Amino acid sequence: MPSLARKVIICAAVDGLVLQPLSSKRDQRPPSPVKLRYGDAGISHVSREATPDLAKPDSSFEAFGIIGLINVSKFNYLVSITRRQQVATIRGSPIYVVTEVALTPCTSYKDASEAIANTVLHAQRHPIDKSVENSDSENEDVELPLAVSDEVGDDDASSGEEVKPPAGATARKSSVAQDVISKRGSYGRFAQRWFSKSGWMQDQKRSMGLTDRAEAEAAAKAAAEKGSKEAMVEETERAQALAEDTERARAAGGLLPKLLRTTQILFGSSKSFFFAYDYDLTRSLAQQQAVNATDTALHELVDPMYFWNRHTIQPFIDAGASQFALPTMQGFVGQCSFIVDSQPPQVDDGAQESMEMKDMRTESTPASPPTERASIDLRPSEKRFDITVVSRRSVKRAGLRYHRRGIDDEGFVANSVETEQILSPSKPDDTSKIYSFLQIRGSIPVFFKQSPYSLKPVPILQHSEEANYSALKKHFDRARDKYGSLQIVNLVEKHGTEAKVGDEFERLVQRLNGESDDSRKVPFEWFDFHNACRGMKFENVSLLLDILGEKVVGMGSTIEDGNKITARQTGVLRTNCMDCLDRTNVSQSSFAKYMLDLQLKAEGFDMAAQRDQENSWFNNLWADNGDAISKQYASTGAMKGDYTRTRKRDYRGALTDVGLSLTRFYNGMVNDFFLQATIDFLLGNVTALVFEEFESNMMTKDPAVSMLRMREQAIELCQKRVVADEAEEFIGGWTLLSPPVPDTIASQTLEEVVLLLTDAALYLCRFDWNSDKVSSFERVELCHVEKIKVGTYITSTLSRAQIDEEHNVGFVVTYCPGFRDIMRVNTRSLSSLASKSKKDEEGGGPLNFSGILNRRQQQSAPPPDKKMAFKALYAQSSIAAVGDTGPKLSESQQVAAICSEIERLVQLSKPTFAGTERPAVIEKGEIVSLAEARKSTGILEQLGHSIKKLVWA
């Protein structure tokens, strides 16, 4: 395959960034560098003469690869790898984890130069230790580059560093505030910003290279006092800089600094992204052979399912700069070596000798390469092996716990991870065999959700049975085509809150098996982990091995002998619990150890006869794998990790799990919302509009859920259910926003409803989007409609998007209620107090509603007019999925089209005298003006949103 740029020199030119690929020797340079133009994502080749002087120490920095470009509004940032750490060697190829990245702005020469200088300064302050780069040691306290750091530059608080007293000073107790500010960690940075004299936003401005407003005003005032021509020019330049700062602050809804910081943490500090220059890390051993091609670029070989920076690196691929397209994978890669003996010494050799031999001959180095290790003389009967664990997280339905649950329409599930365990000799030769054992995990493949605002949230099933079955069938069809036979291992509780989802899962699999032939059936094993291991007896997971041991042996392993595949794994275990983290990792590690013993036995080594029966090297490796996957999905390490490492469980591990539960609870409520939006943005699932939407409600959308398709289905279902008179001609249906309380206009919250129009009546249908059912509807005869008011409809003033009068429009239908104008409530709705009818139970015909409310009372006085208020959905959506572009009309055009159609039918429904014109129904005017909305927005509501924004964003 074509070689990748293993090292890249990044420097700033007057009209762009220049990327200079380097070989292993600094003096060997390719003839054609690549230039990145400022202000766009275009890339073009330039001549060597155009390259700036790379000899200047502050004009460039060295990177180990390019992750890609991120584009927000008018701003582009190059994400490059500035630090890496080798964690394994697979088939002779080194595997690295990204430990630090640099974000270099591509918008202006000044910003790029400053960012590059900051990156160079950071590298000089914290030089790369070669022993660290190529070993398992980590520098946890490395300060991030200043270009996107957390520094606030306050005189009283240093950036993330503990304030030390002067030499000879007397130690004294510090205040709580001083302790919080001085210590490292997110809470320390939070307090540092909060109590800083410069204010909360100062660090964000400086991280973006923005000008401080007070500083700029003071300079402008001083310049005005001087009155000189030079001062006026300087003042103008500062004013322009201030305008640019304002434009940057508006980018990404004012959240651009947080986006950059989150991107840097995600790709760098999290240490969850792995890459190799000449090895396809995204494919298992069996698939490596199938796609082996020497003439194909690495980015074309990798599995798109695990290609995490495909979207950000695409501009380089489109420009033909494939040498910079370095695929990265999120997940885990860990490796350790161990020694086994085909003829182990007898136990009676002496306890002391046994311990010495154990200490000397058992080498535990998880997450470290097998090279450069201490040389140990081996007996003729001994052999050293490397065990490598590779976990690959899917880009499909990627994200965080409680924000990505269950399945989507295409059959992709949340937290989908393929884990491969590779056994290979440390010193391979022509007769060496390599073993590969695959397992997969993934969320329960049904539509469900859980609220992040509870320690033990109740799962809520969503959508119809047919929708669930269709998605589940797609999921298992895809898995069987890729892996062969499947064995489901369901670890959720058979009783309690989890049972609801487990029962639905089992029922749908039974239906799937009933409609499949024997070769396509999916065996389902429900092992109630909590019940079987009650009382911290996690060793009872061996019961699961007793049940499925023969099944695992039958699936076998993939074996490579002399660079040829001699055997292939015929199936995989698909393990899941609710989160597919803690219980799943314990079970998967047990299956992996079971297969490792069988593989070593085939090599002539009986693990039951070895001196080291604890196998701490294996347990630690799998515990590290569990922690990594858990941090990426739940933001904390895995629970039950003490058992995975020691095969023992006590009260200390239980207390640790309590702390992890509380941390997950906090992250689920606060941190995960913005991080989820960032992940979706970097994967290309959403556009930069997602940050404006986030600023409005501090929530994120699920880009895998096609709202366009769901709305079309809701309109179709409402039409079938509520239009009972076959004589009525259906004209059209729309989804709009409406207050949850009938006959109300001003409301802080709106819900999405379905509006149906026939030639006889209007129908306002309130739809249960979780269960795909009509919960209630209101019918109004067209002849009773008196007027339709169209205009500005603002319901909140808490964000810029919500106060935009151009995009916040709606209409109000005013009508005089009559005998045939009714409101009906579905008897199957939780809000209904009426009993179910027989026809409801049978499910036949149009839906039978109870609770008919006549609008006109039997009285002489005319009834008061009623109103139905509707607000248009936003025309622009952040969803970037193909085929889900949302409404093509603007908000005003949507409202105008709906109201003109209603007006036409209303005029036709009312009698007129010959020669007279039909009266107009539509009138223009503000429904809720911006001024009215501001008056109705209380101080507590504004304060609550400000606090939430401060914490969430």
UniProtKB/TrEMBL annotation:
Listed GO biological process terms: phosphatidylinositol dephosphorylation
Molecular function as annotated in GO: phosphatidylinositol-4-phosphate phosphatase activity
Domain of life assignment: Eukaryota
Domain SAC per the UniProt entry, residue ranges: 269-635
InterPro entries in UniProt: hSac2, Inositol_phosphatase, SAC_dom
Pfam family, one: hSac2
Record GO cellular component, one term: endoplasmic reticulum
Start and end residues of each stretch annotated as Disordered: 151-176, 833-866
Ranges where the HSac2 domain occurs: 705-853
Name of the molecule in the record: Uncharacterized protein
